[in-house]
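Why do we care about 3D structure at all? Because function follows from shape, and shape follows, mostly, from sequence. That is the central idea of this module. The next example makes it concrete: a single protein chain, its amino acid sequence, and then its structure expressed as tokens.
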Amino acid sequence: MNLIRIWTVALSLIAASNLQAQNPSIGLDKPDNLTATIAPEAVDEESALVEDTSVVAQPKGTPVKPGEATTRKVRMGKKVFEVADQSDTRRVYREQVKPENCFIVISKQEYRLYVYEKVGKDTLLVAHYPVCLSKVKGNKQRVGDMKTPECTPQKPFYISQIQPASSWKHDFKDGRGSLPAYGAWFMRLVTPGHSGIGIHGSTSNESSVPGRDSEGCIRLRDNDIKHLKEHYARVRTRVIIQSDAKGPNRGPYAFEKKAWKAAKDFQLPTKGYTLLKGASFVK
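And the structure:
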């Protein structure tokens, strides 16, 4: 009997070793179930997020100019949150599109994911969604730096997989335990030099959108990730992530300005916050 047990344990260790070799992300900053571990390769995302900000602040005020959106640190009890200094929602400008002609631009300045369609010589605005980006500004350099990677239109990222993620869970280390974290879909991006970056939902942290609260991935509201997948996103869809720093890759690009002007009733986010009871800005 002891020999049988020893042999069983040995086989289990060999299988685990083979699985680790095939998927190095296992055992590193991983979600809490094996399926999620293998699927999102989440070695660089969602490990140290703060508590929900849904009762911290409510938006008001004037339009945000391109490149002028900011975040503010807000304290509520012992928790400090970083919320976008703006309000925004999904908006669709064109109903009938060819998804194979669509591409995505993510603005770190406006906290928005834009969908554009190439139609002949024109680039048309299709839709936009508010997003949550990494805790730390700047282009990603290494694992664990809590930055969202950037690219250019000449060398865009692209979606390599779209995986069902509603069952994937994660412990945000904030006392809430293991919770659903990725929404319905995880859109894995090919980001040369980095792994584990994707576009996904914000289950259990939806009020972080728009804002800065992830370790590198791009979060949408849960209904928005479903909408993006259903209507526009496909495997091989190009994704351009603009820069935080001033320069030509900060955006908006010339084709975006033209597309915005042509879109009916296009508006940038609304800027400003009124704090709710129990919250205060951190100076």
